[in-house]
Amino acid sequence: MFLGFGTVVNFGLVLLGSSFGLWARRGIPERLRVGVMHAIGIFTLLLGVKLLVENKPETIKVFFLLVLGGAIGYWLSLEERLERLSQGFRGSGFLTASLLFTVGPLTFTGCLLEAVKGDSGLLLSKAFMDGISSTLLSATFGKGVLFSAFYVLFFQLSLTFAFYFFGNFISPQAMANTLFLGGGLMLALGLKILGLLEEVKLLNLMPSLLLSVVV
């Protein structure tokens, strides 16, 4: 495998899933959509648990990073700003899909793992989830979702190569802290997808991941 492999697969599966969704259109029943999203939520939970178990963080430091990052995110109202942006382009499948596929702990942690450890596993898992999600989205929003695949390719490759070139500055302990924190946020994301953690503004906690890499 090569650097960026996970992202290239992600790109291909979003193209494939979107194409199928455009073909199927209204032939996908609502109960199937709900069932698929529940499956994605549970799988995201399992990915989060895997990262939590595999990494040994500095617990107190991770706690303070989460608090500080959350304070920054809530102060900047990141999730609220994103929601307003999405509402302004509600009919745009391109924007909706682009935000869904690139904003979150899976993207950040997956690109970091591939760049620094050569492990594409998390990005490949994300790729399959995005492929399925793109089928459902394109059936609703149309061909804009198909073009979001190119944004996914650009965004994730940029992030992966940035981590690759600056990865030597990330200490092993900082890596463990980041992956552990990413696992926790993935756990929260899974619960949110399942509708069990709707009050938490997950995007507002994302600055904690960036802090964990550099602090």
Please give a structural write-up.
It comes from Thermocrinis ruber. This is DUF554 domain-containing protein. InterPro entries: DUF554 (IPR007563). The chain is 80% helix and 0% strand. With 215 residues, the chain is mainly alpha-helical. The longest helix is centred in the first third of the chain and has 25 residues, at 30-54. The two termini are 31 Å apart.
The number of helical runs is: 10
Number of domains: 1
- What shape does the CA trace take? globular
Low-pLDDT sequence parts: none
Number of strands: 0
Structural class: mainly alpha
Pfam families: DUF554 (PF04474)
Protein name: DUF554 domain-containing protein
Keywords: Membrane, Transmembrane, Transmembrane helix
Organism: Thermocrinis ruber
